[in-house]
Amino acid sequence: MKSLNNDKIKEKDVIILAIESSCDETAAAVIKNGREIMSNIVSTQIEIHKKFGGVVPEVASRNHVVDINPVIENALLAAKIKLEDVDVIAATYGPGLVGALLVGLSTAKALSYATGKPFVGVNHIQGHIAANYLAFPELKPPFISLIVSGGHTHIVEVKDYNEIEIIGKTRDDAAGEAYDKVARAIGLGYPGGPLVDELAKEGSPNIEFPKAMYKEDNYDFSFSGIKSSVLNYINNKKMKGQTYSNADIAASFQHAVVDILIHKTIKAVKDRGYDCVVLSGGVSANSALRKNMEKRCKEDKLDIYYPPLGLCTDNAAMIGSCAYYRYIDGYVDDMYLNAKPNLKIGEN
Ligand code: KG4
Ligand code: ZN
Question: What is the pLDDT of residues 314-330, one digit of tens each?
Fold first, then answer.
């Protein structure tokens, strides 16, 4: 990574072509000045992975190879621009599945090399936070964000666009992972989160599942215990020959998870003296998390921000927004930037 003199950059519009391929969505977007979506194309592989009950990494990589060029062409077409009009090429370089990441990253580096345009590598998780910049023009750091996705559950202090401190995280499973595992246990398909969310609306939260670490004076989480409790509950019922309601299990599981996510996030916001909550990541699409966090924020007179549904789950628009703030701070990457499957938040 090298630093540019960025005084000139800030004086003109910056158009970024961004690429995302960290998991099972092949995506490209064109973003103006980090805040305006000129186009946002997502080709999802959900139908392909559904029959396996989860993402098969090698299958994901192969499908990214098939989709990447048409998705980029569509993003440029939808933005009504040509590649020549783009100022910067950006791509996610981690965290994610290595084979999947390499497809988007290599394509972006090839485009950058061929056109001579600067290349910026983006941390996918920081991209999730940036989804909020696209939806809320007034939102600026500093703030506290709860990042909840398939692979991550973190509470972070976003001190500036490129300065993020992790203040809490899950000690085991991510919230989205727990959703997906519970979905499997009650016979729902993939991806489990949205299906558990829907089924929970038909049930009542009448089963006590544990809220691990609720009372601990920190911002950390643990979701592996609740997943095991759900499995034990089902096995117990089966062994006793008793019936049980999948909808009640979904509602009770969701109630416990959402409760702890809200409790720890509000604690962080208050302890650090902030006045708003920013949600990000795939699980921020969850209806109960959005509704209950909104209610809690209203009671506590805090502002709340969460992206529209299409920007919660993986997309390239958020990568373009994040890339803009890296670029105007003077960061560009060279052709040696490699995929980093375990890239941490704040590590660039
Ligand atoms: O951020 P994301 O699209 O991908 C990662 O970076 O991991 O998040 C995907 C995760 C999956 O675990 C999925 O089940 C979960 O987000 N998810 C949901 C909902 N929509 C997506 N979880 C709960 N409720 C939802 N409505
Ligand atoms: Zn994601």
Answer: 999 999 999 999 999 99
